[in-house]
Amino acid sequence: MPGDAELASLLLRRGPAVSIPSTPPTTLLSVVGRGSTPRSEDVSTSSAASSLYSSHDCVGDLSDVKPRAQRACVFRRLCVDPASGEFRYYRRPNVTLPPVLFDRRYGHIFDFAHRGQNTEKDGSADFLPLNKHVRYKPHVRWSPRLVDGALPADHELRRGVHLLSAPFVRSNLGHVAWEEAFPLLLAMAQLGVWTPRATVLRTHACNESIRGGADAPDLPTASEARLCRKFADGFLRPLEGRHAADDNEGGAGELLTVAAVRAAAAAARRPLCFESVVAGGYFDMFNVAAHPGQEGLLQLYRHAVLRHHRVLPRAPPTAHQLLVVKKEGRRGIANVGEVLSFLRKGCGGQCEGVPRPSAVAFHTLSLREQLRLVSRTTLALSPAGGVSMILPFLPEGAHVILVNYAVGPQDEKRRGGHESSCTRCSWTMEAELWQHVRWVRKLFYQVWEPDDFAGGKPGRESAVVIKLPRLAFLVRAALNAMAEPAAEAR
After folding, report:
1. pLDDT single digits (tens) 141-172
2. Domain final residue, candidates 261, 280, 299
3. Is 159 or 30 the better-scoring residue by pLDDT?
């Protein structure tokens, strides 16, 4: 059996690949599209053996040109052209090479950017998605341009792994952490190129519109740009392996952007090439029900974020701390004052021995303060939605009580069909992520009747009225569970 270090390496990094020199024939074979008869032509094979070319490997769906297909790729020796700013992929000319895709409709496809007869109907047929796809947000798609020939001799090579990514909802902690940053770590592991010191390469800066144009509807406000930098520093920079300098959030400046790379190539007047670029991935962590096998990688990401903020990731608390997350308005706890008073009085005798609960509005704290507070918490009570998305950073063995919402007939068909098939059911936002947070025990405050909601109006956006006896049951159950002897660490 391999040792622990070898096992960890096998899970995250590929080993040496087959590399055996061959002498190509002077006849080039090609099959285009669904053609059943290979075409052949006489070619010259005089390219220098020492020339450098691009290469790539992909995981995921390679049978569909549509960029919504879930796939991730690592590109080696990909270059930015100084004149056009294009990402260019240099392939060996006059050599029979495998197709990029074996599309189930069109057959063999040899280019990354497919332009077929149904392009207008299908939309852009760029090869890879760079962010999550929903109909009401800009979806960024990307392809490198194929160039026949070797890398230019005067190119500059940037070492290491670069992670190409587009923002989705950049002012929302949950989306930045779990639907942009974590998918980048996941893609590195899927492709076997994981490193704790990657470089994030974002398509757009925090103050740029994704749709383009000074009057674009998605042009960030000054407040949104500040939040974007705060969350980029807090959740994307941990992938780069550097500690946060201080609590001056957003003060580290923008992450590396595609515009900055293009400007550097133009200034140098020579191609800027990358040793490895990871692009694409699995960005939908909240709306799709199944993420089997990702539990360990979620925990790896948790550790990276905590270390970045100088919080020990494996130091469980030795005394209880009860945290109540405050949120005003929609999706909040309507009677939070009553809940705090009830908990402070020991839940009518059910919660005796627990210190006074801490009530926190996370937006009033820096990210480091939030993570330090969460890392000392043993039991948290939180409303649904993005406000709860800091809680996967709770310590191992902690418990969280997640307030549900009522599924309504007006809700979209999302989350694997749960909402569309179960009107008035009690459901948990981000349940599809929480199901795989293995280090935290989840308890659910379920809602069923109109009087469970403020104003008697059930719904996805409604504030919830917590019924105290039901809460006392969950708190007592959590305390009893945490009183059991801890499992032996292995």
Report:
1. 999 999 999 999 999 999 999 999 999 999 99
2. 280
3. 159
Asked if residue 361 is part of any domain, the answer here is: yes
Task: Of 399, 153, 423, 184, give the one whose Cα is nearest residue 285.
Answer: 184
Place of tokens 């549509």: 66
Same domain membership, residue 456 and residue 400: yes
What is the rounded distance in angstroms from the CA atom of residue 309 to the CA atom of residue 430? 24
% helix, strand, coil for the chain, step of 5: 25, 20, 50
Is 299 among the domain residues? no
d(CA 419, CA 300): 30
Average pLDDT over residues 56-77: 88
Structure tokens at 331: 């999706």
Query: Is 262 in the same domain as 333?
Result: no
Q: How many CB atoms lie within 10 A of CB 36?
A: 6
Residue type for 80, please? V
Can you tell me the distance from the alpha carbon of 276 to that of 260, in angstroms, rounded to the nearest whole number?
18
Q: Kind of pairing, strands 145-148 and 101-103?
A: unpaired
- Percentage of the chain with pLDDT > 90? 57
Per-residue pLDDT of 303-341, as tens digits, reads 999 999 999 988 889 899 999 999 877 889 999 999 999
Report the CATH number at residue 393. 3.40.50
In a domain, 180, yes or no: yes
Domains held by the chain: number? 2
* Nearest residue to 300 via CA among 5, 11, 2: 11
Q: Which domain holds residue 471?
A: 320-482
The H or E element spanning position 473 is helix 468-482
Q: What is the pTM of this model?
A: 0.91
Is position 286 within any domain? no
